[in-house]
Every structure is written in C-alpha cells, then in structure tokens.
Give the backbone structure.
Amino acid sequence: MASKFQEAQRAKQRELIKKSTIFNGVQGGGYFRGVRDEILKKSDANLFCDIVDASKKYINDNKIVWWGGKRDPTAHTLSSQIACLNHLFLIRNDKDVVLKVLNNVRDEFVEVLPIPCDKEPTYIAFEVTSRKDRLNEAKNEDADITRGSNCTSIDAFIYAKHKSGGLWLIPIEWKYTEHYNNQDKSVEDRASEPKGTNGKGKERLSRYAHLIDQSEQLKTLPDYRQSIYFYEPFYQLMRQTLWAEQIILHQEDELLKATNYLHLHIIPSENTDLLNKRYKTTGKGMEQSWRTCLSDQTKYEIVDPRKFLTPIADKYPTLYQYLEKRYW
C-alpha cells in the first residue's frame, strides 16, 4: 500500500543523508529487507547527537528492547521509536519544560512527577509497561514483562498532577510515517496451523474482549470479531486505553498511582494516509472512527509533533532546529 507521506519522508531522509551534516557524515545504503539509501550504515547516527550515549544507557538500564527485538537502535531513518526519542529524550529531566509541553496540549496540569518505573526516575519515560500483566499478554501468570517486547508498551509517558488535585497517567503513542492496510487481527492465523484456524485471532479475542466489556471508556459491541478494535491503528489504541484503565483499577499493586488519564496520539498533520483514510469498519477517517468507540471524548487528543514541542524552542534551540530540519 503506497503512502505519499511516507515516500515524501523517505526522499527527505535520503536527501539529508546525501547533502546535510545532520547524520554526522554517516552514509545510507544500510540493510533493511534489502540495501536502501534511507538506512544508515551506523545506527547511532539515527539519534540526535546529544542523546546517543544517554539514550542507549537508558534503554539498557531499564531492560528495554529496541524496535524489532534488537540490542541496538535501528538504522532506519523512518523509525517512529527513534523519532519519539529524538523529540523527547533530551528534555526528560527538565520538569518545567515537560510541564509546558503537556500544558501546550491541555492547560490543566500543575506539576509533572518523577516516573517510578525507571531506574533513575525522570519526567518522561519510554516503553512503559504495567508492573504486572494486566492484559493477559504474558505466556503465563509468573512471566516477566519486557518493556518494548510482546506486550502493550507505551511509547512515551508523563505522570502529572491535575489542577483538581488528582494524579494522571499521560500515555503517548508516537506515529511518524505509519499507515495501515485492512488486516483483521481477530481472524489472523498462526503460521503453524491450517489456514482459516484463526489461532492468533482467537487468542487476541480471549485476551481483550472481556476487558473491553468491563471498560468505562471503550464502548461495548455485540461481537468483537472483525470489529474496529482489531484493526490498526485502533488495535493499539484499544490496548493502551485498557492499559491505562487497568493501572488505575489496580493501583494498589502498581508503581503508578492515578485516578485519571489523558491519552495523547502524536501524528504529523501531513500524514493524511493515516489520518484521512476511510477505514473499513466505519467508512470514516481515523479520528472520527476512534471517537465513535469512546465514552469520554476528553480522554483522547491528537497532536502534531511540531505543535507539541513548540515550548522547547527558546530553551533548546539546537534540538528544535534539528527536529525542524529532520522531521518538520
């Protein structure tokens, strides 16, 4: 499925590799399902130069898996995990700026708090999971949850105190060039089973259907098989919504204590292949489609990354200029 925005960004990254110093002279032609000009030959160059060592240490210290299950950052310049880190990692220790970034979305918060799930708590955490498996995703009840691998992980996360006095979870889903076909995850087969068995799909239905039924935010449907909740990007949003609700419901056993949440979806406004596609289950665009599933519309916001990071411009001009040149 072709994406005009993705192809435009692919061409942009190739041009930056050839003609700019933004990748510190590292060339393209690395390997990702074949040799490609937008794949760097050294993966560290994919990260903003001021965060390379610290971000790799953070991932290692917190036992997080890089995208694709790798031990190192991807060299793919269109990676949304890399884009998320490049936008947010440098400011993670700056309490005032993180609060400004959050209030730039909705001016309701009085403080951001250190996030206790990290080895060294800061004000933005990455690939956050629950302390225990709340979504039936682990292989067994005693299995450890690995951040960033085979479970619902939140791309970036802020922990905030609301003006009402309550503590809020701020899960952030970060998109870059993603766009999706009409693959139905509720009827997907396992590779080892006969076609039409729907083994993967049945497992997913057994994990999430009853949690959706119990959800205050997600609307109950008569049948979840082949429903909107099992098509991307809604499959991700459904799981993240359940994640936030389950953290709040089980806060006595979780490191994060909260009474409410605000789900942020960071998407470039130019990515119309994601935003404006007419989705199979609704015939509507992405935001309209997802909002039909939500009971409380105030718990979900879509934000363009440039608008999101506007408050950093004065204090972090070098980072802002890098983001502007590379992504915006």
In short: The chain has a mean pLDDT of 94. The chain has ten helices and nine strands. The CA atoms of residues 149 and 242 lie 18 Å apart. Residues 4-19 form the longest helix (16 residues).
